Amino acid sequence: MLVEFDIVERAQAGDAQAFNQIVQAYRRRIFGTVSRLIGRPEDVEDVAQEVFIRLYYSLDQLRSPEVFEPWLYRLTVNAALDYLRKRRKRKLESRVADLSEQQVMMADAAAGSKAEVDEKEKARIRELVDSLLSGVSDEDRLLLTLKEVEGLSLKELEKIYRVNENALKVRLFRARQRVLRAYAARRGEEARKGSDDER
Amino acid sequence: MNGDNRHLEQELDRLLAAYRDACEAPEPGADFMPRLWARIESAQSWTERLWKWANGLAVAAAAASVLLVVYQVSSRPQPDFYTATYVESLMAQTEAELAPVELAGMASEAPPEQPLP
């Protein structure tokens, strides 16, 4: 726990100062988790704010301060899930916006300093993983990210999802297999493209 | 095939690790807390407005129902059927049924009228 139980209890009782302390303590962690869950640095702050707003309005539903952290994770996962659903809908509605975003990124990449090259490479990895993860449902995407990227244990995931370990294992295995197949297909495509270029 | 699969698994693990590094959390902006509180307060004022509006609506609906009941009670004259007691209604019904029979009997049994001297 990054804060004492009594601070959580005070925040539950409506103490704004205590709520501020919780936000200050968990802000970095939530930013990091949200960043890995959604993969879009530009939207992290908005989603993180949504998490803390939900925290503020649902603090009175928290049964005991001991379960605060898994509960905060659950709020984070739900806010990220809502964001991903909205994004998926937006993507379906307008693919033109994505194209222009890609064009902007390509223009930016043309600049060429070391930091820019690094940033370009990071953006490429984010895009690649994002497209691989888009092959599974948003729920499975978040579960897989929490396990494989965030590094949470099955025990921790059990507390967050309130589902037994075996069910989580099955879901994780299926999601990973699907992502693996998408990755293999992509590698195959790249290899074919490479051999075509050589010719 | 198994070797290929294991190789792909390892590559995917490396890619996910690289993704973790590529997703550095941005630093929270200086206005993070003020913006957060502004959003909380705006949501609060919205819920308060909604609550007031719902209360107003409930009071108006209650007043309208009372007025409607008063109007219905005062505008419609009650027929006797609803105000009379059971005995009174029974009596009224019996009287209505017996009256013609009584009159007919009286007409046949009555002595002829004598002219006055």
Name its key features.
heterodimer, A: 199 residues, mainly alpha, Rna Polymerase Sigma Factor, Chain: A, Arc Repressor Mutant, subunit A, 2 domains, B: 117 residues, 79% helix
Could you characterize the architecture of this molecule?
Chain A is mainly α and 199 residues long. The longest helix of chain A is centred in the C-terminal third of the chain and has 34 residues. The N and C termini of chain A lie far apart (59 Å). With 117 residues, chain B is an all-alpha fold. The radius of gyration of chain B is 46 Å and the shape is elongated.
Roughly what percent helix of chain A?
Answer: over 70%
Instruction: Let me know the number of strands of chain A.
Output: 0
Residue ranges of chain B: pLDDT <50 for 5 or more in a row?
none
Summarize the helix and strand pattern of chain A as letters: HHHHHHHHH
Strand content of chain B: under 5%
Distance between the termini of chain B: 145 Å
Oligomer: heterodimer
The number of helical runs of chain B is 4
For the record, what CATH class of the largest domain in chain A applies? Mainly Alpha
Give the beta-strand count of chain B.
Answer: 0
Q: What is the averaged pLDDT score of chain B?
A: 81
Instruction: Specify the biggest β-sheet of chain A.
Output: none
